[in-house]
């Protein structure tokens, strides 16, 4: 019942604020996607559900990063490993983009799944103290770009995992339309039948709306949003804000410079930017009104919440 109440509250907000975000859409797109009209049949998936999240915490500089998959998450894990162990740079002589920083040099010593867990381990159990004394950061990304990166990485590049587990990628193997349909139907069922038991799986965590992560429903006001992206201008702005953040928290310039050298011109193995297959999937989605419509319905409130322009639907 509470989910429905939150949803209607959000819709009421959209009535006042939404036009600013969707006014640039064509009449055709606005006619097809009407979240209020389609609430019970083809709902736009509401924001703010608390799902399993991945927090990375640095005690020395008092920074709490909520990491959302495909949003700089692998890189930030390596960066925090280095910040806590700067001597490893001289010892191992590998750039931050090398996943040894992520998976070998440091374990999950700074990993938490809930805000309560962070507070218990870092601020004597006080969430209020955590929110006021730590800088809380979440990286977000243009929703469609994030989805494409996730699909290419998990269902196309890493498709060998499908042989080990046929349920991987919602059992659709490399079929994009099948994946989007099953994902939308599954997430729609959660919204329309909130009392039905649901267990999040690997696919869910990688593709859920970004606003579902980080317990933003409760703590959104305490988080600083940094927009990550792979386009040149987006990436330049992101790194400028990110490095300014590190310096403002007292991270030594020498360490910031080492991080710069290993990030600005480098990618992790999970990166899908600048790959031909990524462009192909992007073009296919943007030219298929059925696939794009479902993705907009899934991520509609991510577009609103994080102030990204909603893409227009192509006319069939």
TrEMBL record:
InterPro entries: Chst-1-like, Sulfotransferase
Keyword presence, Iron: no
Natural source organism: Parastrongyloides trichosuri
Any Gene Ontology CC annotation: membrane
Identification of the protein by name: Sulfotransfer_1 domain-containing protein
Secretion signal, residue range per the UniProt entry: 1-24
Pfam families in the record: Sulfotransfer_2 (PF03567)
Record-level Gene Ontology MF annotations: chondroitin 4-sulfotransferase activity
